Amino acid sequence: MPTEQQLQWQRLEWYAFVHFGLNTYTGREWGYGDEDPGMFNPSKFDANKIVSTFKQAGMKGMIYTAKHHDGFCLWQTKSTKHNISQSPWKKGKGDVAREFSHACKEQGIRMGIYVSPWDRNCAEYGRPGYLKVFYKQIGELLGKYGDMFEIWFDGANGGDGYYGGAKENRNIGNPDTYYDFPHIVKNIRKLQPNCIVWGAGTSGDVYWGGNEKGNVAYPCWNAAVEQETHVKKHTRTLRDKAPADEKWMPLEADTPINGTGWFWHANQAGRVKSVQHLMDEVYMKSVGHGANLILNVAVNRDGELDAADVEALLRFGEARSKLLATDFAKGATGKASNVRGGDAKKFGPEKLTDGNIETYWCTDDRETTGEVELQLKKPATFDVVRVREQIRLGQRVQDFAVDAWVDGKWVTIDAADEHGKSIGNQVMRRVPVTTTDKVRLRITRSRACPCISELSLLKMPEIENISAPVVKDTGLPKGNWKSKKGASAIDGDEGTFWYSGKSPDPITVDMGRKHKISAFSYTPRQDGNLKGMTDYYTFEVSLDGKEWKKVSEGEFGNLRENPIEQRMEFKPVEARFFRFSSISSVEGSGSSAAEINIYPAK
Ligand code: FUL
Ligand code: CA
Question: Which atom of ligand 1 is nearest to 254's Cα?
Answer without folding.
Answer: 9
